[in-house]
Amino acid sequence: MGSDSSSTVRLNIGGEKFYTTIDTLTQREPYSMLAAMFSGRHTVCQDPEKGFVFVDRDGKHFRHILNWLRDGVVPTLKDSHYSELLREAEYYQLLGLMDGINSVLNRKKEDEDLTTDLTRLDIIKCIQSEKVRFRGVNLSGLDLSKLDLSYVDFSHACLRNVFFSRANLQCAKFRDVDAEGANFHNATLQECEFTGANLRGALLADACLANSSFCQADLSCAHLQNADLTNANLEGAILEGANMKGAKLNNSNLKCANLQRAYLRQVDLRETNLEGAKLDGGKKYYTTVDTLTQREPNSMLATMFSGWHTVCLDPEMGLVEEINAVLSRKEDEEDLTNELTRHDVIKCIQSERVRFRGVKLSGLDLSKLDLSYVDFSHACLRNVFFSRANLQSAKFRDVDAEGAIFHNATLQECEFTGANLRGALLADACLIDSSFCQADLRSAHLQNADLTNANLEGAILEGANLKGAKLNNTNLRGANLQRAYLRQVNLRDTNLEGAKLDGANLLGAIR
User: Fold this and answer.
1) 94, 143, 177, 290: which could form a disulfide with 89 (CB 3.0–4.6 Å)?
2) Phi then psi dihedrals of residue 261, to 5 deg
3) What is the tens place of the pLDDT at every residue in 50-86?
4) Which among 114, 147, 168 is the end of a domain?
5) 25 φ, ψ (degrees, to nearest 5)
6) Residue 406's domain is classified under what CATH number?
């Protein structure tokens, strides 16, 4: 047989006939038996009548071997067929195919470990009984919305990205659950126990949480807008970066809670226990006893410093905690005031080229506006509502957009390089051709987002929910996807070189 690389080769594998080329048999797996046979270095015996080269192997899976040599794609087969194909790959010494099959089998084993233990129908059946327990059960990703789950014990369960929206969960137990990214929007959660729970990035907006316990719970970047936390116990809770705008905290216990970078606008803290709480950024004041007592001798401050009462001092700073809270309130409110209103923004975008570089717009409602090509670089966009806005080709370089709402927004060809998007809501958003290099998207909501051709090199997506997201030709090189939720995601055309996937939920993902 000649050694022309483009010439057709006829193969008879155990009675099954195949047609291919020398290039196909030699290029992808140059050290295989087939490459050696057709390298030109050896004489290959052919059928003298029809020119077929006979190989005494079962031809059942040889079409998969040829497709691997043509395309480099491991076929989708039943588990039993993979073991048969692996034997053939070993015979033909196809090292790449052997590695590919073993990777598929290992992923299948990992996915089986992550499979949910029960379905929504199973849950509905279970809650007919008098006392229900789902302790330690894996229910991640289930839709349990609008169900009556009152008094159910979920302690130690995996509830990542579960949909509890509008469910009745009164008196339910969530001790030490992993409910990162779970959706409790408008749920009834009175008298629930969340002690030690992981609720990072969870959606608890408008939820009724009266008399519930969140001791030592992690609520970093959680959405608690307008939540009712009356009489709730949040002692030692981590609320760093949480959005609590308009939340009710009457008689709530936030002793020793971490509220650094939390969003507390329109919140009444007068009846809240904040002893030992971390509220970095609070103002401190220095004055004299004369100033506090002479002009208003009948005031509370004059009484406090008259010498008749014992005043508790901060042992480290020597500042009076009570007076600090009173005097700082007005100045704190002034610091939180935005530089522009929605009306101002609408006026500005009439001009040809708009820049809001470094401007503070936190908490504004900019939904449904045409903000295409606007430059927001370095701006403070915390908890801004961009829902359904047109932001095509806008610049968000190094913005602080923690907790911002981009739901259903158009964000094609945007630049988010270095942006803080922790806990941001980007579900169903169009993010085609956008750049998120080195952006922080921890606990962000990216369900069904279109990230086709997007560049997320070096991005932090730890704990982010990417269920159903489109990642065609997406660059995730060096990205941190630890504990990310990647169910039903096609990763086949995604660059994952150097990406961290430890603990990621890849059930149903195509790789």
Assistant:
1) 94
2) 60, 10
3) 889 999 898 999 999 999 999 999 998 887 888 899 9
4) 114
5) -80, -15
6) 2.160.20.80
